[in-house]
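S1.2 Input.
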Amino acid sequence: MSETFRAKLRDFAGYTSIHGFGRIADSVFILRKVFWICALSASFGMCVFQVYRLSLQFISEGVNTKVSVTFKELEFPAVTFCNLNPLKLSDVLQKPELVQILNETDNAFDIGINYPYPKTSLPYAIPYDTGASPLHTAKEVFRLRMGSYSNDEIFNMSIPMQDFILSCRYQGVACEPTEITQIRDEDYGMCYMFKPKVPIAKLAGPSMGMYLLVLCDLQW
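S1.3 Output.
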């Protein structure tokens, strides 16, 4: 082997990023060269073995599927439902500050509602020059006016629960009155929250869930 080829081989071993070749080239003693040759050969052999195993695994196209089915009890959440008509119209007509909002909204949109709204002499309640939607503004003003009433007033002006909730069933059994709680909402007035005594849903299926039938009567 010529000295030029040996020098080039030594330079390659010293500068290559393959680990081990540089150790072999720089080793002065024969035992160190043999050690690094054996270590490099073992590493290369292990690499070839791993590539061979992975190639066989890829070619086999094996599929490993693990399916486990577990059953556990689920807790039924509390359900809150409200009437989109927060107050009875018959009671709204008795409140001049609420009738004023109806009159202004009727005039702004030229709806021509047939109900005999009593005329009011109160200052305008809806600022139509704010750039916002007049209907949205009327809703916000109505909500603010409604917020000034006490819980008892809201309760008396809302549709009674026995008239609003026509039917309620849970897990195939009629809901008990103690399972329905009245709560006040700033947007919808008096709302109702259903929370079963036994919140664990033991039976599944459409007929075993919660069934609720309500009446939204616009003629109140």
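S1.4 Remarks. The mean pLDDT is 78.
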